[in-house]
Amino acid sequence: MLAGCSPKTAPQRQTSAPAPEVTQFYTNKPLLPKGEKALLCYGVANAAAVRIDPPVEKLAPALTRCFEVTPAQTTKYTLTADGRDGRTASREVTI
Q1: In DSSP terms, which residues pair with 90 in a beta bridge?
Q2: Residue 78 contacts residue 22 (beta carbons within 8 Å)
Q3: Which tens digits make up the pLDDT trace of 20-50?
């Protein structure tokens, strides 16, 4: 190599993180008698964080996870997966 010359390098491609995805969000009992418990189950991919509204418990990204809820009335739950790049994905379930 000649002095003062540097080898040519290929331009680097910037790859963005894959979009977050809610792969599943469901309940085992969509119709629930008052005071009884149901399971809410979810799965996410490419998520840095997960949250549910109304808040029930602290959630973490998981391929599959279930937890109990005892809604006092008909309740619409919204699960949101937050990606590392600021994008989000959401799904809803009503019990």
Answers
A1: 80
A2: no
A3: 999 999 999 989 888 899 999 999 999 999 9
